[in-house]
Write a structure and sequence with these properties.
The complex is a heterodimer. Chain A is 66% helix and 7% strand. By secondary structure, chain A is of the alpha+beta class. Chain A is globular and about 75 Å long. Chain B is an alpha/beta fold. In chain B, strands 1, 4, 5, 6, 7 and 13 form a six-stranded mixed sheet that branches. A five-stranded mixed sheet of chain B has the order 10-9-11-8-12, with helices on both faces. A two-stranded antiparallel ribbon of chain B has the order 2-3. The N terminus of chain B is likely disordered. Chain B has three domains: 46 residues; 206 residues, Periplasmic binding protein-like II (D-Maltodextrin-Binding Protein, domain 2); 96 residues, D-Maltodextrin-Binding Protein, domain 2. The longest helix of chain B has 26 residues. In chain B, helix 4 packs across helix 10 and helix 4 runs antiparallel to helix 14. In chain B, a hairpin with a 5-residue loop joins strand 2 and strand 3. Classes of the chains: A alpha+beta, B alpha/beta. Chains A and B meet through helix 1, helix 2, helix 5 and helix 11 of A and helix 1, helix 5, helix 6, helix 7 and strand 10 of B.
């Protein structure tokens, strides 16, 4: 009899199919069932097919000996290490090029973006040309442009271009002297850390003082003196512990020193230049998005153009800039997989080699997908935090 | 559960019936039907993939053959866009055995990295792409190698003009080495330099063309791959005469075609096509004399060419009885294929060496066709 009561409490609202609550639940249930069924079907089919074709499966291969070498590695790696470590080497290479690219692209992008709004005709046009060229060429071609450019223009090893400080530039890349830290050099790093901490403290105090009294303090020059001066002082006091290992000519290559290959250089330059064009447009849009009244009001208060940009326009523009900037950072990271075309051992390249040596395509592609997904999600999360802090605090 | 529940149930049923008669209801029904049909089609596709390769090939009318993207002598398009080489000729031979027509084959150029996945997934029916036969590929990768169409070994090539005085691979310590990724070459290279306590800097590309371009541009000092490949690649460099192949051979590279595991009939057809090519050479059957040979008195030749009365050799294999005639008509025997593509009749001018028939001191040997 309970159901009769329910019927009475909830009088019929026409068709049961038209009840939005019921309909919503039915549709959601159907979607979930379909999703689970299709995932189950795909997984089952993959397992079936792998077994039918007698292809090995599982992730056990990650612990086997890799047997191949990798040209660029930030962590110790030899052919005796495992496939798993080879993939990690590739991942670190991807992260290095992505982080370096993001920093450079942001700097170039901001300069070009602000340059596009310059009052100077020449600067404005140069920046426009830059944006239009790099934005309209596929990134792979930009990479090839740099790589072929590096290979074609630079001289062979024997005719390396000598640069200041004992560094060399040739077809095989950029050779720099490598710093060798002697005894007592820990003092220099301590001094550097102390310098940074003091600079931060000075900046804070100066800001508080300006808020309270309106008096300004030369924060920039003081900080520079602290960050550069203290380590220099420590260097002299600890008895000049720093020596350099200079690159030297041997039978085939320059040996010794610190070597940056043309593959990294061209990938890094190409990704930076390409993404910078998009960032420039985002920055321009952000600045144009700040009402002109803000600039005029700041001008009326007597601020100089540089200060207006730094103190009034850019902080407001950042609110508009950061969300699309995140997408560009993600794009740059993902575009770094184009490294495969020019022999830079990034994640796609090394995991691809592992794939081919083991034949375990499904597992390897899965690893690649998960890793890129995690990198992208972490980037997004960081940028969301930055965005939250930058957001206008409304009163 | 009283009368109320039943009343409600009846009401719902009635409403559904009424609903289904409306236009919207018909639309929903139609889409459910389409969904069921679609799911059925997917299920059908899954089962079709496991049908025999021979039936699939016959149904589509051609063989899909995975080859190199461009390696002179093995698989490279000529100036008319026609594929030439020992590997593509092998696929033509299989097409001749299956269809009696060596042109019923389509080529899929594959990089070293793509090749196994392409075969595993059924994108190609045969992988004939100067691929080294190893135990790992035969077992864990789910392939079956049918034989060795070319016995090769890994070598090194350097620019002698830029590096005078280097005449042995043991002098290569510290060199930058260009190599293609995902190959046995890459592994042998690591082993060789490690065993000889030498250092090197690998410059690894995915595509053969990229390796060639980088080596030609001077990105690396040394190019390493199978020796036959080095001779072929040397021809494509900007100054072939400047480059020399060093004498050391650091590995065994038995190159041959492979098929998927789990289809014995297709495996047999491809394997016996290879043996038929060898047998034809051994018996002196050539592209030019194959028709005369059909009337030969030699019982072995008659048997191989399917001229024995009531013969079942071809049909047991799953092809026609004159399959060997078709193969030889399409591409000649193994010796002709070799000379035309990599031997004296080609710019590569590679000697038969260990690729000669066993009767001439080589390693090429076919079990009897009987």
């Amino acid at each position: 009899m309970a159901s009769q009561e329910v019927l009475r409490v909830e009088p019929s609202r026409g068709s049961f199919i038209n009840d939005p609550k019921v309909r919503g639940m039915v549709f959601q249930a159907v979607v979930v069932i379909l999703l689970v069924a299709s995932v189950w079907w795909i997984v089952n089919n993959v397992i079936d097919n792998l077994q039918r074709l007698h292809i090995a499966s599982g992730f056990g291969y990650l612990k086997s000996r890799a047997g191949f070498d990798i040209s660029v590695s930030a962590i110790p790696y030899t052919s005796d290490d495992t496939y798993g470590r080879a993939i990690v080497v590739g991942l670190i290479n991807t992260l290095i090029v992505a982080v370096a690219g993001i920093i450079t692209a942001t700097i170039i992008g901001f300069i070009i973006g602000i340059g596009r709004l310059s009052r100077n005709w020449l600067i404005r046009k140069i920046c426009t040309v830059y944006v239009e060229i790099f934005r309209n060429i596929p990134p792979l071609l930009v990479i090839f442009f740099w790589y072929s450019g590096v290979l074609a223009v630079l001289p062979v090893v024997r005719e390396s271009i000598g640069l200041p400080f004992g560094s060399f530039l040739n077809q095989r890349g950029f050779y720099l002297p490598r710093a060798i830290w002697g005894d007592g050099s820990w003092l220099i790093f301590v001094a550097l850390l102390v310098g940074i901490a003091m600079a931060w403290f000075v900046a804070r105090t100066a800001r508080q003082r300006q808020m309270a009294t309106g008096q300004q303090f030369p924060v920039f020059w003081t900080s520079l003196a602290l960050i550069v001066g203290l380590p220099l002082l420590a260097y002299v006091l600890s008895g000049f512990p720093l020596t350099f290992d200079f690159p030297k000519q041997s039978t085939f290559n320059l040996t010794g020193g610190f070597h940056i290959g043309p593959e990294f250089l061209s990938l890094y330059l190409a990704l930076s230049c390409y993404t910078a064009a998009f960032i420039a447009e985002i920055v321009r849009a952000g600045i144009l998005g700040v009402s002109k009244g803000q600039t005029e009001a700041a001008g009326a208060l007597g601020l100089r153009p540089g200060s207006i940009l730094r103190l009034v326009v850019v902080p407001q523009a950042m609110r508009i800039v950061i969300p699309p900037l995140t997408s560009q950072y993600l794009n740059l990271t993902k575009n770094s997989s184009l490294a495969i075309a020019i022999a830079y051992p990034d994640l796609t390249a090394t995991a691809g080699t592992v794939l081919n040596q083991t034949g375990q395509a499904v597992e390897n592609v899965l690893i690649m997908m998960v890793v890129y997904l995690v990198i992208s999600l972490v980037t997004s999360a960081v940028m969301n935090v930055v965005n939250a802090r930058m957001a206008l605090v409304e009163r | 559960m009283g009368a109320g529940f039943t009343r409600k149930k009846i009401r719902i049923c009635l409403r559904i019936r009424v609903y289904l008669k409306t236009e919207k209801g018909l639309w929903v029904m139609k889409h459910i039907a389409i969904g069921i049909l679609g799911a059925a089609a997917l299920g059908f596709m899954a089962s079709a993939a496991s049908a025999s390769t021979l039936d699939d090939v016959k149904a589509k009318g051609f063989i899909q053959c995975g080859t190199n993207t461009g390696l002179a002598g093995f698989a490279a398009p000529d100036d008319k866009g026609e594929w030439k080489g020992i590997d593509v000729d092998f696929c033509r031979a299989v097409a001749a055995a299956v269809f009696g027509d060596g042109t019923k084959v389509k080529f899929t150029p594959l990089s070293a990295k793509e090749r196994f996945t392409a075969l595993q997934s059924g994108e190609v029916d045969i992988l004939s792409r100067n691929t080294t036969w190893t135990i790992n590929r035969d077992t864990a990768l789910g392939l079956n190698f049918v034989g060795v169409t070319y016995y090769d070994g890994q070598g090194f090539m350097i620019n002698a003009k830029k590096l005078p005085g280097v005449n042995s691979a043991l002098q290569l310590s510290g060199a930058a080495v260009c190599v293609q990724s995902g190959t046995t070459t890459e592994l042998n290279l690591a082993d060789y330099f490690k065993a000889n306590k030498m250092e090197y800097n690998p410059v690894v590309f995915e595509k053969l063309e990229e390796v060639n371009a980088a080596y030609d541009a001077g990105r690396c000092d040394v190019y390493t791959t199978d020796q036959s490949g080095l001779y072929g690649i040397r021809l494509t460099l900007s100054a072939p005469a400047d480059h020399v192949v060093l004498p050391e051979i650091i590995s065994k590279e038995p190159l041959g075609p492979a098929v998927r595991q789990g289809d014995d009939q297709w495996y047999h057809i491809v394997k016996w096509t290879y043996f038929a090519l060898l047998q034809a050479e051994e018996l002196g059957i050539t592209q030019a004399n194959v028709d005369e040979m059909k009337t030969s008195d030699n019982p072995e030749i008659k048997r191989v060419l399917g001229q024995e009365p009531e013969t079942k050799i071809g049909t047991d294999l799953g092809v026609s009885n004159d399959w060997v005639v078709n193969i030889v008509k399409a591409v000649g025997n193994y010796g002709e294929m070799f000379e035309r593509n990599v031997g004296t009749g080609s710019p590569l001018k590679i000697a038969r060496g260990i690729n000669a028939l066993w009767t001439k001191g080589g390693l090429q040997y076919a079990p009897p066709i009987r």
